[in-house]
Fold this protein.
Amino acid sequence: MISIIVCIAQNRAIGYENKLLYWLPNDLKRFKQLTTGHTIIMGRRTFESFPKGALPNRRNVVLSRQVDAHFEGAEHYSTLEEALSGCRPDEDIYIIGGSTVYEQAMPLADRLLITHVADTPDKADAFFPIIDPSVWRETNREDYGTDEKHQFPYSFVDYKRI
């Protein structure tokens, strides 16, 4: 199963200057719960954005065209197709960014696990592809309002390929 997991703004923005746009504790908990014990695939810049390097208790896979690149605690592949061919058929795989990797993975993914944030940021330089309703069907939604730790309303929405 190939899943894409991402937090996006109303304008599909996902990042600015290689940083997440939102710090939502419940989104981070959901991410950790869903991906722990599984394989996560990401681009080089996403990996480099992690303050402590490879995420623990997960198989970290980094995509980079730099042949001699080394990523501590992670496997390196040149393309998404190579990385996926290095995975077992029964493996749960989570695509975790960035925008180029999301774009490449959209035609291959079985489901989308999206945190939709009810906000449009002032600045963004990375965006998620359009979620085409003729390809994706919403299967689950949990809506949340603001609180002391969450500045904007948000929703956890799962989509399955039709």
About this structure: The chain has four helices and eleven strands. Helices lie at 25-35, 44-48, 80-85, 99-105. The two ends are 15 Å apart (CA to CA). The chain has one domain: 2-161.
